[in-house]
Design brief:
The structure holds two protein chains of two kinds.
Chain A (H helix, E strand, L loop, with lengths): L1 H17 L8 H4 L7 E6 L15 H7 L4 E4 L3 E4 L2 E6 L5 E6 L13 H12 L9 H5 E6 L4 E6 L6 H5 L32 E7 L3 E6 L12 E6 L3 H10 L4 E4 L5 H10 L3 E4 L4 E7 L9 H10 L2 H7 L6 E2 L22 H10 L12 E2 L2 E2 L1 E7 L3 H16 L3 E7 L1 H10 L4 E5 L8 H6 L6 H6 L5 H13 L3 H17 L3 E7 L2 E4 L3 E2 L16 E2 L1
Parallel strand pairs in A: 1-10, 17-18, 17-19
Antiparallel strand pairs in A: 2-3, 4-5, 5-7, 6-7, 8-9, 9-10, 11-21, 12-21, 13-19, 13-20, 14-20, 15-16, 22-23
Chain B lengths: L1 H28 L4 H8 L6 H10 L6 H13 L13 H36 L4 H15 L2 H15 L11 H31 L2 H8 L4 H30 L2 H6 L5 H10 L3 H29 L8
Classes of the chains: A alpha+beta, B mainly alpha.
Chain lengths: 532, 310
Amino acid sequence: MKKLIYLALLLIIVYSVSLTGCGNSTEKTTGVKTKAKELTFSWNKDIGDLNPHNYSAQMFAQGLVYEPLVTYAEGGKIEPCLAEKWDTSPDGREITFTLRKGVNFSDGTEFNAAAAKQNFDAVLANAQRHEWLELINQIEKTEVSGDYTLKVYFKNAYYPALQEFALIRPIRFLAPTGFPENGQTSEAIKKPIGTGPWVLSEYKKDEYAVFTRNENYWGTKPKLEKVIVKIIPDGETRVIAFEKGELDLIFGSGVISLDSFKQLKESGKYETKNSGPLSTRVIAMNSNKGATKDLPVRQAIQHGINKQAVINGIFYGTEEKADTLFSSNLPYCDLKLKPYDYNLEKAASLLDNAGWKQADGKEFREKNGQALELELCFDSTDNIQKSAAEAMQGDLKKLGINLKLIAEESQAYNQRQKDGNFNLIFSETWGVPYDPHSLCSSMRKPSHADYQAQSGLSMKPEIDKKIEEVLLSTDEKTRQELYTYILKTLHEQAVYLPISYRTNMAVYHKNLSGFKFLSTQYDVPLTDIDIK
Amino acid sequence: MKKYIFRRLLNIIPVLLGISVITFGLIHMVPCDPAEVYLRLSQIPPTDEAVALVRSELGLDRPLYIQYFDWLWKVFHLDFGKSFVTRQPVLPSVLYYIPATIQLTACSLLLMFLISIPLGIWAALYKDSLLDQFSRILAFIGASMPSFWLGFLLLYVFSLKLDLLPVTGRGTFLHLILPSLTLALGYAATYTRLLRTSMLENLNKDFVLYARVRGIKEKLIIGKHVFKNALLPMITAFGMSLGHLLAGSVIVENIFAWPGVGRYCVFSIFSRDYPVIQCYVCLMAVIFVVCNLLVDIAYVYLDPRIKIGR
């Protein structure tokens, strides 16, 4: 027995020490030091299987390896990528893409119309899974009409098709050599081979991934030779790793706390930047439940929240105050709508006129003996939502509204969005390039908080009809008119309380140059970065 | 001894069956429908038709007891199903992460012994000395400081300020030091005090006085007689701690980006990946039960008075 105990102890020692040799011992992955032309940054989750037609991989990583037919540039402008040019038929039901010649996948296989069609077919074979994306529902078939010509036929004229072709998933292009034997990518792929500027060269699940520059890349080659992505789930650890020099760059939205961002910024040792507006943090107000059924109550809430104080106190000024559901820099969204200003008197008068009176000695307003109580639901794991909710609770108390905070874990919170079991709930627009069309499209689906929030509006059927029309419209003027109706109605009905425009943040060491944000939120701008 | 072990092994069967019922039952009692979770994780809108289809595919439309026996049968064949998120078989995924957690736990245990045994013995032998005071302070700190805070402090001092150790990763022996220390310190503090108290109790026993009268060397008395007897309460606590160390390393794994099974499980809990959660709970239950069994066996060995049936 004694021998056994000694043996067990010995095994513990040997095991704990020996396994350390199993990890990657290169300097890059251990993060002790990085060489020139190598950049290390971190992500909070494993990059996943890099299947371009699926959802289990991280979007930024899919964006490094795979490319779209077209890209989304500033202000919603569509620019060529793997497609050199495209022609849309007059009825809008056919787009002919002329593919770029001389593009090879990273393994040397040629990218042509046949390879593109193979990818389309794989995606369409799994259409149910992509039902959330109207583009997939609208594609009827694809056809190869030349080595470098691909025709896409649509069931209806669908104007946002080109924007959605620019998305990171599900339509990006995997090399034929990366397809599994059965040709179906719905479950798995053989190897992640794309045409993009980066090639996955080393990967250890949940530890790190190394991307090497694609030397066969057809476009502007990145200045960096290698990019190492370390998986660090905790934001504070990420900050320490960055300060120590194990990371060169921190990039993304919510990747570190705003306190840490402020501290890094104020230290003056690093470069810190915020992108332009990418999406909107909003609170959806349910027009079909409790006191928020009343328009004056919703309007009073709009006037009763001091958004600027939230932005200064919680976001440290890193985000811009939002007055409308979509930022005016998005297509069709510059409508000059009149913002709801912070005005407690106006808010109180709206409530008084609606019958919600504050009796003497009572803390909260009442109507027909019913106290003005509302529930604000948020994701308990999101500290920003929690802080903003607490600030709102204080603001609304001044108005005599009892705002109860309901913190729940993500799935339960999602369930409430779907069931409409809320008065107010935190939400977010989809961001570029999805906004405004994808979010508007989803407003018609009952499983979305937007649908639930709007379901009490008398003009809801009309809104849904206009959304359907706008997505199928072929005339620019009509489209603008339809969007104007939809967004103006939602604004006037005060269904959304926009808080701020969310941005991406970047912190990097001063030896790094060429950093600039892209117009989309999930692409990491690595192409122009250089290390001095 | 063999009979005792056999009897204890037999006792494990109903315990594990009970655990399997509770695990299965709890998962099915949570308010979210697994079919809806599956659809949401697959990016498929959870329409009524889609939910019905998935419920049928996953067998969720059958009576609960049939689902349970079917699940149990598969578990006996080491088939815990496929992850809702990755669509890969669960068991290989869990097993992929296990070595990192075991490595961390093993190293923490080692540190725990290396700190608590000498410190506990010295604190008892030199009662009320400076060393004893130090061990007391260490116990207070270790017991009261949450591991996430301790982890960050260690990172701040040893990685950022002194630049001695790496912040994250699992590459070399150096990467193992801080997470193991974070995990070990809390336990080491408790064990030091436990051993000290137990040592002091035994030092006052008659057999020690008798041994001294017989002229046996002090080192031998302490090492062979007192220490061995003092180990008993520590072994009991150790049995519980081993399971806790394995299952409770999640915070440390998160802070130090250690790719262990705890982190994987927490991610699965947040995404309601039921097959993974069930597999993890079952695995941890087995580890707990086996640890307790090993402790009981060690107990019988260390204290011959504890005999079966006596």
